[in-house]
Structures are given as C-alpha cells and as structure tokens.
C-alpha cells in the first residue's frame, strides 16, 4: 500500500509565490499521520498553474498520479476543488479508482469518498456545485467582455488593426484607418481578400494574411 497526495494552484504566480501550496502540503501530510500513515515527499504531486476546469487525467501531474495508483493505494486531496470542477470528470475518475481498489480521500469532505456512505453522496453533490460555480464564473467573464465590447473598450488579446488602446478604450489610429478605407474601396470594386493581402504586402509596412483582411473588413461591415 502506498499513500499519495495531490496539490494544485491555478496560476503560475501562485505557484512561484508558494501561495496555498505549503498549507495544502501540511493538510495532506497531517491527514495521513492522523490515519497512522506516512506520506513520502516524492509521493506528493504538485500541479502548478493549471485550471481546475481541465480534466484530471489531462493535467501533467494529474496524469502521472492517475497512472501510478493501484489496488490498496490511498490518495489524499486537501479539497474537492483542488481535484475537480467538472462533475462528469469527477465521477468518472472516482469510478475508475474505486474499481482499481484505490481509496480516495478529500479532507474537506471528511475523508474517504469511495464507499457507499454519506461521503460518496456529498462528493457527488459538491462536484455538481463546483461545476456550476465554474460555469457561472465563465458566464460572468463573457458578460463583462461583451459589455466592454459594446462600450468600445479593449477586451484583451492583440489590438485590432486600425485602433490603439488607451486606458482600456479603443482609439482610432488615423494611419491605419486610412489603410482600412482603401481596403474597403478595393473590396467594393471587386478585389478578393487575397488580392488585398497582396496589395498590402507590396505597399504597406504591415503585412496581413487574407484571413486577417477578412476580419478587418467584417468589422467594418464588409462581407
């Protein structure tokens, strides 16, 4: 029988600063001791800068841990959301590990959830809530981006051709706006996206693929 632990932080900043990792490590090692067991340092898998929304078996450390667990082993997680924020993945992983004869312990759920008691029921319910919370946060982020877009504010990523970004506000850039006006005129005259792309390569300092040309013209209301 071997004892394993799993820790996770969502951002690389948290990982570099050690935020919550030491607390998680202390929790899982103390839990093992409370069961009369030892948790070797090498058996603690640390996931740094990985979202809880990704499937457990697809994470770098989660994948390694999932592969090494065998019959009689015990794996300890400090909290449910360190392992899962997707109900289906949570239940699939639990089902697989239970079939292997691995005991899965979540400290925040009171211990072993691979049995048929209250712990297993709570695990299922809270996994669903974790999924709901992740989806709710994602929806809020989308709403904020849509609002910023409607207000003409920058929503992240590369700046759009024709605009600069000042204090989160998109400001027309006259030199590039002039290029856009010429692109629109060429398109109205029957030029293809690729033809406009070739024209830019010959006459402008900035090259643009034909798909880039299409995106710019679509933003200007040109199909």
Question: Which fold name fills CATH's third level, the topology of the largest domain?
Answer: Rossmann fold
Task: State the distance separating the first and last CA atoms.
Answer: 64 Å
Question: What is the helix/strand order?
Answer: EHHEHEHHEEHEEHHH
Q: Quick check: average pLDDT?
A: 82
Count of separate structural domains: 2
Major beta sheet, specifics? 5 strands, mixed
Rounded to the nearest angstrom, the radius of gyration is 26 Å
Give the full name of the CATH homologous superfamily of the largest domain.
Resolvase, N-terminal catalytic domain
Query: What is the global morphology?
Result: elongated
Number of DSSP helices? 9
Helix/strand-derived category reads: alpha/beta
> Helical residue percent?
40-55%
Domain Resolvase/invertase-type recombinase catalytic: 2-152
GO biological process, one term: DNA integration
Active site: 10
GO molecular function: DNA binding; DNA strand exchange activity
How are the elements arranged and paired?
Blueprint: E1 3-9, H1 12-17, H2 21-34, E2 44-48, H3 60-68, E3 74-77, H4 80-83, H5 87-100, E4 103-106, E5 111-112, H6 118-150, E6 163-166, E7 169-172, H7 174-188, H8 193-203, H9 210-219
Parallel strand pairs: 1-2, 1-3, 3-4
Antiparallel strand pairs: 4-5, 6-7
Helix pairs in contact: 5-6, 8-9
Description:
This protein is α/β, with parallel strands linked by helices and 223 residues long. It folds into two domains: 3-140, Resolvase, N-terminal catalytic domain (Rossmann fold, 3-Layer(aba) Sandwich), CATH 3.40.50; 163-219, no CATH class. The protein has helices at 12-17, 21-34, 60-68, 80-83, 87-100, 118-150, 174-188, 193-203, 210-219; strands spanning 3-9, 44-48, 74-77, 103-106, 111-112, 163-166, 169-172. The strands form two sheets. The protein has a five-stranded mixed beta sheet with strand order 2-1-3-4-5, with helices on both faces. The protein has a two-stranded antiparallel ribbon with strand order 6-7. Helix 5 runs antiparallel to helix 6. The longest helix is centred in the middle third of the chain and has 33 residues, at 118-150. The model has no long low-confidence stretch (mean pLDDT 82).
């Amino acid at each position: 029988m071997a004892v394993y632990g799993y820790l996770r932080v969502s951002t690389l900043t948290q990982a570099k600063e050690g935020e919550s990792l030491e607390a998680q490590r202390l929790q899982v090692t103390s839990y093992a001791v409370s069961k009369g067991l030892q948790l070797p340092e090498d058996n603690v898998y640390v996931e740094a800068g990985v979202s809880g929304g990704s499937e457990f078996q697809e994470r770098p450390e989660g994948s390694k841990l999932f592969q090494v667990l065998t019959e009689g082993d015990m794996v300890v997680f400090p909290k449910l959301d360190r392992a899962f924020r997707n109900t289906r993945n949570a239940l699939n992983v639990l089902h697989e590990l239970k079939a292997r004869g691995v005991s899965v312990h979540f400290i925040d759920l009171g211990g072993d959830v691979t049995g048929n008691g209250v712990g297993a029921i709570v695990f299922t319910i809270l996994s669903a809530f974790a999924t709901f919370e992740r989806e709710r946060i994602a929806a809020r982020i989308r709403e904020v981006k849509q609002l910023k877009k409607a207000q003409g504010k920058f929503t992240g990523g590369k700046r759009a051709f024709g605009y600069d970004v000042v204090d989160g506000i998109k400001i027309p850039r006259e030199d590039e706006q002039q290029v856009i006006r010429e692109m629109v005129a060429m398109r109205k005259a029957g030029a293809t996206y690729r033809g406009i792309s070739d024209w830019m390569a010959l006459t402008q300092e900035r090259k643009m693929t034909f798909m880039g040309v299409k995106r710019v013209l679509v933003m200007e209301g040109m199909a």
